[in-house]
Amino acid sequence: MLYKTMFSTPVIHPLLRFLSVFTLKLLGWKVEGEVPKDLKKCVLIAAPHTSNWDMPFSLMIAFALDTRLHWIGKQSIFKFPFASIMRWMGGIPVDRSKSTNMVDATVATFAQYEELRIMMAPEGTRAKVEQWKSGFYHIAHGAGVPILLGFIDYKGKQGGVLASFETSGDYEKDLEQIQRYYKPYMKQE
Fold it and tell me: Rounded to an integer, what is the distance from CA 19 to the centroid of its chain?
């Protein structure tokens, strides 16, 4: 494990899990699918990424699914006084201003740990994008880990995991298959 997070802190984890399940039910949300218990490493994509509410709902859904995960965030949100809390919430900072290769760095991180599930937004931003960023795919393929297809559907008040996807190395073909899962949840123009 990288460091203690809210997903691994005794007493806090079961309390946050209870509060997450309770809050989701209170708001009329359903959690669909599951994270296989024996799945120690994966890239979990959460799509579509359209709102500032995505992070809190994603975390509540992760607690409801009883899984531990980390997420990638801009270096700028990991500054004092928020750095410790962001890491405790599962955050891993990435400096996007440098020319470092985030894909290679994240693949190397997977090699260092026995258990690591990283949640990423394939769009890379909340703004409407025509094309997903490819980093999530190359990280999963490079690390030899599956992609869990997570979703949030505000209109239908549901979220969870659609499927687990093994990469083939053919990005275009695999992306087409992955995006088919998300068609019902993408905003209609």
Answer: 20
- H-only helix segments in the chain: 12-26, 54-64, 83-88, 102-112, 135-143, 171-182
Cβ burial of 11 (10 Å; 0-12, 13-18, 19+) is: exposed
Question: What pTM did the predictor assign?
Answer: 0.85
End-to-end C-alpha distance for the chain, whole angstroms: 42
Q: Which two tokens stand for residue 45?
A: 């994509």
In the chain, the domains with their CATH numbers are: 12-185 (3.40.50)
Torsion 123-91-150-189 (CA) sign: negative
Nearest-10 crossing angle of helices 171-182, 135-143:
110
Residues 174-187 have pLDDT tens digits of 999 999 999 887 76
**101: Cβ contacts below 8 Å, ≥ 6 apart:** none
